[in-house]
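Re: that chain you flagged

S.,

Sorry for the slow reply, it's been a week of failed gels. I finally had a moment to sit down with the sequence you sent. For the record, here it is as I used it:
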Amino acid sequence: MSLLTKIQSHLSPLSPTFDTQLFLTQLYEPSKIYKFDDLMTALPIVAEGIAGVQFYLGEEGDEGGWEYGLVNLAAFLAQCMKETIQYDACDENNWDMYNNQYPLSNACGQLGQSYQDYTCPSGEEHIQCPVDPNMEITATTHATWYGAPPGLFCGPKEKYPKTGFWDYAYWCDNPWNDPPESCDVYEGQKAGGFNNDEAVENRAGREDVEGCCWWGRGVIQTTGICNFGKLNFYLGARAAREGRPSRYPTIDFCKTPDAICSSEEYSELKWISGLWYWMDSVQNYNSNGWYYKTELHKFVNGGMTDDSFIDSISGIVNRGCHNPPCATGDVDGLTDRRGNFQSVLSALGLPSTGTKPSSTLPPIPSPTDNLESATASVSKSSLQQILDSLTELRPTIESNVLMYRNAYGVESLSDVYTFNAFIESLAYFAESGIGGKRFYIGSEQGSEQSSSDLRYGMVNVAAFLAQSRTESIQYNACEEFHSDDTSGKFAISNSCGQYGNEYQEMKCTDGLESGMTCPVLTDMRVEALDDGARYFDRPQFYCRPRTDEPFTGYYDARSSQINNDEAFANGSGRTDVEG
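Prediction finished late last night. Pasting the structure tokens below so you have them in one place:
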């Protein structure tokens, strides 16, 4: 029996597991784009080989040699689950918010990149796609959060001389306007609209979308004219025209790169493009003594017992090196990639004794876990009714309240504010409280809970969550971040207080609490975590003594630069961050 047949026979019964437990979105729903059957269609194609390179399935003649192939597949899927499957995205989303806007020219490249300049290395220039300035394409998929930008698009300057931005806060349902307006840019749109009043640059300075049709597509986001050129040269219409074997002779990936996401006839292309990248860039990776296949064998032969192998692969895929942090930074979502790898290994029936999966829903904690419940004076039945009701509503609360917009512009489940932590905290404050004060759940102390009492408690919870989402959950932020500006300039001294407040002067005044005020230490040095600050691309708060920094300047949102050439006051007049 061939390696391919063994692996196909092993994988086939696992279709429900992959489709309903592994290929999940961030809301734990099965992906509508990435399907197990399409993966199984793609696997024999890449196993046969493209340009003499095959997807590695293991070692023939070795009884357990096919396990190397299964682990290779697991490593590939772990990266796919992080890169695209969790977002249920085929086309790259417009996610790079620059100067608090989503430029339409992000189609040309995000984070300062220029996809049409991703050319092939010396000796392979003949393979890359030509940049056609007249090409017009609109992405097949896009983000779907409230007010999300539509699909990326490209077109000639003759049609789009300058482009503006997507206003995600615009209220598009205006039937009373003249002419009437509706949310009709894409199906399911709830808010947002194009604003082309003036040209808006992306991070690379582009204001147009001419020749900008090369954004990422497929399960590992094939990007740039070289990668699409390789698909066409080895698999597409160019191969057929020039007399080479071609799996897709009718698809010109240089003229219709969108076929990867839009083709209904060849839905496996979403996987093929990613598998080709894996074969070309990961399986062949060999740098400073680290060779992929050698390390794969070491991992399998060693019992698959640690995370070093998947960490190296994550570095190659996400940062371009096997020993992160690389020159380009730390690996994004390293823990998620580890967990994905262990989830797939476990589904394949292989050892998975490294980091345990983090993507599965954790068990609901008992309401009295870690609580000092001996002195509780609130009826346990009352509290339990509230907790049971909230637990039944968990999917709704997670998908509508505990969500934020991540760096890719995708509505994502908060990892700062989690349902389990909320339930445990609520149980503590309703049952034990602090200083004799308890969270109101609708009943008097020691009384039974009526249906009207339950509603009172649930409304109190709803009011609390509504404020919490507005203040912090929607930004996935624990610490306060810069929001008070003067003409786009954010005073570094905002950490002392925003909107005219002076936080170190907010002292306890009640007689019983006056002794609880923290002393202000002028030599304290603290820096905020980079959570909400990252969301808005602004520096985080910090404090330090005047001996370290006699005065502070401002952060300019337009240039994304900090200017400390001269003192710049916040709303209360502070120009330092001492205390």
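What I noticed first: The longest strand covers residues 165-167.

Talk soon,
D.
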